[in-house]
Design brief:
The complex is a heterodimer of chains A (about 100) and B (about 140). Chain A has about 100 residues and is of the alpha+beta class. Chain A has helices at about 25-35, 40-45, and strands spanning about 1-5, 20, 55-60, 60-65, 80-85, 85-90. The chains are: A alpha+beta (about 100), B alpha/beta (about 140). Strand 6 of chain A pairs antiparallel with strand 4 (about 60) of chain B, so a sheet runs across the interface.
Amino acid sequence: MKIHIPTPLRAYTDKQETVSVAGATVAEGLDELTKAFPAMRAHLFTPDGKLRSFVNVYLDDEDVRYLPAKEATAVAPEAELTIIPSIAGGCCSLPAAGCCRS
Amino acid sequence: MSLLLSKDLYDELRQHGEETYPHECCGIMLGKGASNGTRVHKLMRAGNTRTDSAHNRYSIAPQELIRAQREARQAGLDIIGFYHSHPDHPAQWSQTDYAEAHWFGCSYVITAVDHGHATTTNSFLLAGTGEEDKRFETQPIAVE
Ligand SMILES: [Zn+2]
């Protein structure tokens, strides 16, 4: 399978945007990726091995979190995984919460 | 390392915040590294998925990010940063912005929109290597 790497994580893939790995499931593909590029592991997974909450993994156009088998989902050789960290933020409305309004 | 963008793109980015006022706008910046910084080639408007509190929160759907990443790849560009507006708030990053920033090496541009008019626009580079040492660094904006 091919795995698309987002801009910030290309620092750990020798600048490669796309990495091809072996593996029959999403989990195996991610495992192969972190074997090839060990520095990637801490950016994708928590110390106890769970995907970090802000890291989204898409199998083609499907969010892996919402697939019935989740990371155990089978991946066809021509399928593409995309790793995409979330983008969010905002300006809190309560000054007490230490936001930019205070 | 400045953020370089044309006057047209700069105006477009600021205008987006005026259009969505009093809600926050957000968008994705596609571009390329240059010798003197990062140059923005294209802006992609994103729909703010936070309809519950759109005046003080924004988030971009992963599907939109994936589309942007695909489009960037086909154009030989990268996702180099993001922009959003602060309706009636200063153009400074908030604790929420900081907590939810995970795109290291990318620019986070914030435009203050006061009573519907874009005022200050600032850019912050997310520096560091991970959640433990991340920080926002003020980044000069060069409008060419
Ligand atoms: Zn903000």
